[in-house]
Amino acid sequence: MTMLRGPVLVGTDLSRAAEEALKQAQRLAADLDGELIVCHILPELLRVGMLFPQWRGIDATAVQSLTGKAEAAVRAQLQTILGADATRARVVLDSGTAHAGLLTQAEEVRAGVIVVGPGEVARHVVQHASVPVLVARPSSGEGVVGATDFSDPSLPGLEVAAGEARRRHARLHLVHALDVDMFSTGQAPAAALPYLEGTSAISMDGLDHLRDIAQQRLSDMLTRTGVPGDATVVSGHAAEAIVRAAETVGAQLVVVGTHGRSGLARVTLGSTAEAVIDRAPCSVLVVRLARDGGR
Hints:
Layout: E1 8-11, H1 17-32, E2 36-42, H2 44-51, H3 53-56, H4 60-82, E3 90-95, H5 98-108, E4 113-116, H6 120-128, E5 133-135, E6 143-147, H7 155-168, E7 172-178, H8 180-184, H9 204-225, E8 229-235, H10 238-249, E9 251-258, H11 268-279, E10 283-288
Helix pairs in contact: 1-4, 5-6, 10-11
C-alpha cells in the first residue's frame, strides 16, 4: 500500500503564507515519526556573488553574513510558529530559483514528502517532484477527498487518501467526475476508463448505466480501504467537480494522483491536479505513480 513517509521537507520564504506550510509539515513529520527539514532559498544574486565577487561587488564575508542572517530569520520564524518543536527542525539553505532549490534539496535529503504554500513555486514543484507534494492551505474542514478517474496514476492517490483519513481521524470522501460532454461525443480516454475501450460514443440513454458502473466500482474501492466515508459520482469537468466536492463536504484535504514519469500536463489527471491546486479551498496532496523499481 502507498503511504506517506519522512523526512518531510518544507519550504519557507519567510512570508505569512509559509506559516501554514510549516504548521502542517510539523504535524506530518511528528505523525510519520520522520525528520522535519526546513528549506529557505536565498536569491540567485548570492550564488553569483560567491562565484564572481568582484563583478557583483559582494565579497565572501558579505555573503557569509547574509547567509547567517537568513538562517537566523528562518529560526525566528520557526520559534514563532512551532514553539518548543522548532529546536527539532533542521534548517537547510540554498540559493537560486525557489522551486529548483527546493527540488534539489529534496533529492539531497531524500525527502519522502515536500510541503509548500500555494502559488507559482508550488505549481513548479508539483510538476517536477518525484515524491508527494502537499500544497498547504488553512482550512477548518474535517473530511478528506480522494479523487480518481480509475486510471493507474490515480490509484496510489486513493491509497494515500485513505491513509490520510485514518491519520487525521477524518471521514473519507471518494469522488469520480463523469464528464457528460466528453462521453456523449466519444472523447473519453480508454486509458482513464479501461472498461470503455472499444466502445463508440455513449448516448444519453446509456449514461445512467455508465454512472451505475462507476458508482459500484467507487463503492468497492471505499469498502476495500476500510475507512468510514462515502463514494460519489458527480457530473462535470473533473477539476471543477473535485473542487465543488471539497467545498460541499467541508474538506481539510484533497488527494489526487498523477503519473511519476511525466509532467502534469501530459496526463488527464495531471492537468486536473494542477487546476485543483489552484482552486481548492483546502490543502491539496499530489501523489505520483511510483516509477518502476523506484524508491
